Amino acid sequence: MNTGKTTCSETFPTGSAGINRGVIIMIASVLCFTANTLLLKYLGSVRVVSPSVAMLFRAVVGSLIVLTFFRGKGTLEISQIFRDRRLIARGVMGVLGTSAYYVTVPAMGAGKASILCNTYVLFAVLIASFAIGETLRKRQIFWISVAFVGITLLVGNGEAQAKQTLFPGFNEFIAIGGALCAATTVVLIRSLTRRFSNGTIFMTQCLWVGISVLPFAIPALKEINGYDAFFLVCAGVMAGCGQMLLNEGFRRLTVALGSSIQMAWPLLTAVGGFFLFGETFTVLQLVGSALILGGIFQVRKTK
Fold this sequence. Notes:
This protein is mostly helical and 303 residues long. It has helices at residues 16-46, 51-69, 85-108, 110-117, 120-131, 138-154, 170-192, 198-221, 226-252, 255-262, 264-277, 283-301.
């Protein structure tokens, strides 16, 4: 883990030991993200906890994680979080993307929301090609097109799934909008890592999210009890640890291998949603999900 003022460049393993360790770390990240999503579904649908409260807990827990693992002189630049324009943009996009995810997981289902969340990879490639001049290869264009066909099949209106309609509902629009915000965040982070540490970038999201939801979360805090608070803390820990393990995993694995492991997150979430909450997919949605995940994997591994 990088704890200096500048971030480490991407490194790849030179032996089987490094690869095996990276695989274990990445699997742990997948399990953390899956647990976080299922906890959000439980808190929002069963416990009826406001998304703003869940986001506040995530922000507080995430901040504590950053302060624990990114200590040291020059590691964190808290003052820049509200002064640097790129960090501000990262914070705003983080608020919008996180809000979309936390709202749609209880409303739309853990599996479907996670799959749509992962489409940020497709949008990030497109945005990067226009914003920072990254090369968009023909192979990527093909697989992005395949994935967008999958999105069309997956986002059928939830109220008319029996009719297999191809028109997205309100929550689907929110989820796709959140993916667009997350994609913009990824492009911003690529630029920010040249100047700021991982800790500063991570703390930016935590502080902006926490401050933004505070007016909405405070009135809703009186509705939760100790049982809810316990699971809210667990969800925050899973989200923060999942992100840190993800960053560490990609330092040890190639993009193709790391991405292939990460594809297990929406799959495991969909399975968990089925067994724990009775979530189901129509035939068209299953086909669409397969096209999306396949397209994302191919886009990620294309260099």
